[in-house]
Amino acid sequence: MPVFNIHHVTKYEYDRPVKESMNEIRIYPFASHEQEVLYHEINITDNPDILSITDYWGNRAGMFNLLPSHRLMVIESKLIIRTLGKEDLTHNMISGFDTLREEVTNNLKLLELSRITEIELREQINEITRSIFEPGDAVADVIRKCSTYIFDYFNYIKGITTVETTVAEILDHRSGVCQDFAHVMLEILRSLQIPSRYVSGYICPNKSGMRGEGATHAWVEAWIPGTGWAGIDPTNNIWVTNHHVKLAVGRNFNDCSPIKGTFKGPARQSLSVFVSIDYEDGRTFEDITSVKLEGQTGIPELPDALETFAAQQQQ
């Protein structure tokens, strides 16, 4: 099974001093039988204490405060991980929607993950579901056809969307990156009452080459009767393999954001994200993303807290 050495560095720079930076991180590998953590180290500017918790979705999250005045905050993760999943995944392609309803009934989390959130897009989403679903289809087959539809009809283009881009906007211009495709797929599957959840992590390059490889990545896990959660990557139109490393799961990106938080100070900030993935044979893949984040001047009558929530778009 492959072993990956992943180095993930997030750097926030401010044009003037800020203080009381309160942050939440989800850059810990997800506890799963599909991956084994061999080593993990997290380093943060000024070495603040990190309070570790397990959230509602089973993710490990860390919370910390950087109280002193500062113009730079760096969060570094050094991870060595072995993936244990199989390259060729076979899912129960027979179980249908009657069996799915039996498994979902009375399971509050599965029911929650079956609800659509974009009510106003119902007609657009229904138009897509009519092209991928026919009565009598197996659940796994519908999931696969949904992934294929997104892969065929949406263009993978970096830089035209942000973490704030809506599903409606993605449907309009039919372009984006992995984060966008995952959100579209979630709405489609949930409109068919298939429980599905957003997954954040990394996609480690293989010999075939994949979109988004060597960077933070996003895909979808859908509930298949008789199988449970099965990962599928609509950006590359594949069931997940042992080249996918999982960090967090949730309803959408907001539940899985690698880093989010607030700080005090009327500063403008810039963000850079560096990810490198090393193989045992010495190969290295690197990705660097820089983002300009517009700050706001604090109002004297109000706390001058500026939100840095969800700044890292997943590619």
Oligomer: single chain
What's the total count of β strands? 16
**Approximately what portion of the residues adopt beta-strand conformation?**
35-45%
Q: Could you say what the CATH architecture of the largest domain is?
A: Roll
Overall pLDDT confidence: 88
Tags for this entry?
alpha+beta; 315 residues; Immunoglobulin-like; 5-stranded antiparallel beta sheet; C8orf32 fold; 7 helices; 2 domains; 9-stranded antiparallel beta sheet; globular
How would you portray this structure in words?
- By secondary structure, this protein is α+β, with helices and mostly antiparallel strands.
- The chain folds into 2 domains: 3-83 and 256-307, Immunoglobulin-like (Sandwich); 97-255, C8orf32 fold (Roll), CATH 3.10.620.
- Helix content is 20%, strand content 39%.
- It contains 7 helices and 16 strands.
- Helix 3 packs across helix 6 and helix 4 (139-153) crosses helix 6 (178-191).
In short:
The chain has 315 residues and is of the alpha+beta class.
Helix and strand layout, with pairings?
Blueprint: E1 3-25, E2 35-44, E3 51-54, E4 60-66, E5 70-83, H1 97-104, H2 108-112, H3 122-132, H4 139-153, E6 155-156, H5 167-173, E7 175-176, H6 178-191, E8 196-203, E9 216-224, E10 228-233, E11 238-239, E12 244-250, H7 253-256, E13 259-264, E14 269-279, E15 284-293, E16 305-307
Parallel strand pairs: 6-7
Antiparallel strand pairs: 1-4, 1-5, 1-13, 1-14, 2-5, 3-4, 8-9, 8-12, 9-10, 10-11, 13-16, 14-15
Helix pairs in contact: 3-6, 4-6
